[in-house]
What we know:
Distance between the termini: 117 Å
Helix content: 40-55%
Strand content: 5-15%
Amino acid sequence: MAAVGHSRSGSQSQQPRLNSRRHYNVVHPVDVETPPLTSPAPATPTVFREVKHFKKWVVWLIPTFVVVNVIMFGVTMYVNNCPKNSVSCIATFLGRFSFQPFKENPLLGPSSSALQKMGALDVKKVVDDHQGWLLITCNWLHGGLFHLLANMLSLLVIGYRLEQEFGFVRIGLLYVISGLGGSLLSSLFIQSNISVGASGALFGLLGAMLSELITNWTIYTSKLGALFTLLIIIAINLAVGILPHVDNFAHIGGFLSGFFLGFVFLIRPQFGWVNQRYVPPEFRTSEVTSKFKTYQCIFWILSLVILIVGFTVGLVMLLRGVDANEHCSWCHYLSCIPTSKWSCRSEPAYCSSTQTGDQLFLICSSNGKNGTYTYPNASSSQLQGLCSQLCS
């Protein structure tokens, strides 16, 4: 390094003296190995991964189910073709999409013969003709516009949250299997009439919500409030099922199927297990070795056994033509309770017909009413529609 100042010797004196003028050398950074300034390293941001068990799914399956049900109703009304097969129709400006008379169908919908063509649940066809697919297809049909709107609004309200929480695979399976369970119980107890509607599958979603609340009890904050609210909703919906012309056995069968399926499909891992798997070590609260609690595993095993046994026994009874009412004398009250305001008897319409030229004469076998109609060559669907109106 250069000195700070320059010294000079005088001729008369040997003492050094400092120059009055001081010079400072410019030190460049390259010339000096200055240690780098040590500043605290910025803290590494903690990255939390989204837990796959609790992530929010994109909801698309439930809206698709709604669209499919609406399309199926439109196709059914097209096949129904009320102006061609009935004497009178409602909303005739809709053409062949117009509705059957209120006397025949108060729900603003097609005739029973059109529903049968489209795949309504008819126990005789399932047992005698081995058309087992009717247990599934009936869940995608509806008896009328009011029936369709009520079910689809309920499906959006209930199904949206479940699919968002658990994904389309589990909720799709739950919906279809619950609908099958509802059809199965309905066919064992109601064998004289056809049955349609997505109510069994909807009640399956309600049942799954209840079992999901039970099996994932520890992760909820207001447990009793959520349980009470859900039980009230279920009780009200089941109470509506005791009215006439409502298939409450489909509701009960769907609810029980969905309830047990919820223990199988909608089980969540322990929070502690999720915590130690997805959260950095410094944020972990405890070490949990098992993914699920003991009671969750017990519910899972019992529910799976009950589902397998229940569906197997139900299908065997159905295919053997067993009428469950013969083994349970009071069970019919679960679907309809007779009062002074209404009757629970709903026999299918049968009529005797006589054709004389263009005149068709019908007599209803159940109430004895008769009617004369101008039909040169009435088809079977026209006869069924006229008979339904006459017997209603």
